[in-house]
Amino acid sequence: MAKQNGFFSTRLIAWYLKNKRDLPWRKTKEPYKIWLSEIILQQTRVLQGMPYYISFTSKYPTVHQLAAAKEEEVLKLWQGLGYYSRARNLHFTSKIVANELNGVFPQTYAELKKLKGVGDYTASAIASICFDKPTAVVDGNVYRVLSRVFNVALPINTGKGITYFKGLAQELIDHGQPGTYNQAVMEFGARYCVPQNPDCAHCIFNDKCEAFKKNKVSQLPVKLKTLKTKKRYFNYLVVVSEDGKTLLEQRKGKGIWQNLYQFPLVEASKDISEKQLIGTDGFKGFAETVSVKVITKHNDTPIVHKLSHQHLHTTFWIVETTALGEMGVPVSTVGTYPVPVLVSKFLDGFRLKIE
């Protein structure tokens, strides 16, 4: 297989060296910065992730400085990037590397994979880019390129498919320059062999691509349907007191947005009216703490915030009260708390009214 498909890595690397983007993490082999970039770019496009990479490397130039930070500070800097478990794992692992490994990242795939938040893809990327280990990366971009060029219709989200593509990628990797090869195949998938309407007529593989020859490009890669999207109905109670305070609570336990802050939340089974909200147990318990003066809906229709497997139908209710005392936080400080992007967007539009 490797000899038969030797054309693949040769053409790919030549294309990459001529067309690669000028990205900051490509100017270093420092494990800390490569690890940081790979965690940020999980589930995230380069254009969106770039400002976060710059912010993190500016505020925390070394793994020791990241490890010394408070989790709330890390979550705040991560705000808006989503999948917050990445940020929590990032912080946890930084403390392991800084305090238990003396700031030195492991050099092998197997040891890297033991770090929290580091899976097959990230371990392969760090090992190959930083330490020249021939461990092939496989992500969405790689699945797409390999499935098309070699006409592989195995579903990429099954055990059999994952094993096959990992093996194929490993056979194709250039052992002399594994880091360059891995970056090349990811770059090619991200910029050329794109999901919709790739320019196959001018592709460097158009004489070899089996999917192009058989007119199957749009059908590959194959991915089985997963869980249905769940609908949830959030009602945030935005308290505005006469003494310039509001209420925040921290999300605990497993689930979305762990350890982030939000306004008091009443979750319902469907969209509800003001009268129905006031009748819920969640609101009654809230009203025992806060003397409700006025309650109004912020917008006419709920905001639908879409996550990977959840759609959050969200309404912000404005609650006026006289004073909150010690349990309240100054409205002027709300922006310093790490909050879900859903809450952040609300604050951006409502800030003038609560300050």
UniProtKB/TrEMBL annotation:
Query: Mind listing the UniProt keywords for this protein, alphabetically?
Result: 4Fe-4S, DNA damage, DNA repair, Glycosidase, Hydrolase, Iron, Iron-sulfur, Metal-binding
Q: Which residues form the HhH-GPD domain?
A: 40-191
Query: Which residues fall in a coiled-coil region?
Result: none
A Pfam family annotated for this chain is: HHH
Q: Organism source for this protein?
A: Marinirhabdus gelatinilytica
Q: Which reaction does it catalyse?
A: Hydrolyzes free adenine bases from 7,8-dihydro-8-oxoguanine:adenine mismatched double-stranded DNA, leaving an apurinic site
- Cofactor: binding comment: Binds 1 [4Fe-4S] cluster.
Indicate what this protein is called per its UniProt record: Adenine DNA glycosylase
Q: What is its EC number?
A: 3.2.2.31
